[in-house]
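Run 4-hydroxy-tetrahydrodipicolinate reductase through structure prediction, thanks.
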Amino acid sequence: MIRVIIHGCNGRMGRVVSGILSESNDMEAVAGIDVTGVQRDTYPVYSDIFECDVEADVIIDFASVAAVDRLLAYGVEKNLAIVLCTTGLSEDQNNRVKEASGKIPLLKSANMSLGINTVVKLLQQAAPVLADAGFDIEIVEKHHNQKKDAPSGTALLLADAINETMNDKYEYVYDRSKVNEKRGKNELGISAVRGGSIVGEHEVIFAGLDEVIEIKHTAFSRSIFANGAIQAAKFLAGRSAGVYSMADAINSDRKI
Ligand SMILES: NC(=O)C1=CN([C@@H]2O[C@H](COP(=O)(O)OP(=O)(O)OC[C@H]3O[C@@H](n4cnc5c(N)ncnc54)[C@H](OP(=O)(O)O)[C@@H]3O)[C@@H](O)[C@H]2O)C=CC1
Ligand SMILES: O=C(O)C1=N[C@H](C(=O)O)C[C@H](O)C1
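Sure, done. The structure for 4-hydroxy-tetrahydrodipicolinate reductase is below.
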């Protein structure tokens, strides 16, 4: 049995992860961490991560940026693998993630779904061809009205995937209302929409002369992220220290 601590267990994502693990034959939730400290399932829930002294193999995190520093410190202290799914981390926090990965196995991804990770590959093929032909690139993301960070971690992940294949030539533009000039060729626009219960939608628009290509991913339920995180946890448990990617977990033969 792979023993999992769910960080943010009472949140929207934590509850979905918890539900899937309760049906698993080879993985189990052994503890949860959530500011509320409310126990909803069979495992104990701690409001302070350092109060949790339950033996485990891996932490699955869907919580809050405010909780990330203590999560990393706890993982390092207890020598626990971490699947880090919280988005909106600062540059300093991303550096601390890298530092921690020198000591523990760590997989961080802004999107755990197979679909988005496949879109990344498509973009890396399409972007060099279309950008060289003069196409402008814009990303539009849509999420529910409870989401705190904007733009989404996935929008940035997609933009970075494109930019890496283009020698980092793009400058990201988030708010055109402040720009009173025509669009520059090296701009990559990123726009965020927030409303209702939209689970997650990402559209990458390649706009050329007289033709437009749109690559769009729509999440209809949170289980695609939860299943991806559980697959990542299964992949990560027992590995040596280092940074791993969702692509590593998807290509692994340790399936859920
Ligand atoms: N990588 C991916 O594929 C995905 C990433 N996400 C990201 O995951 C994160 C969580 O999303 P979601 O579940 O919708 O958010 P929620 O706000 O529903 O859940 C987060 C939970 O974490 C709790 N929490 C807040 N601070 C702490 C803390 N210091 N210690 C422990 N628990 C804490 C919250 O408690 P309280 O409500 O009381 O503050 C809440 O119960 C977001 O950053 C989101 O962007 C989401 C979906 C997919
Ligand atoms: O907060 C969410 O809900 C989501 N967050 C992630 C992000 O910021 O990209 C992933 C997914 O789109 C849902």
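Residues 114-132 form the longest helix (19 residues).
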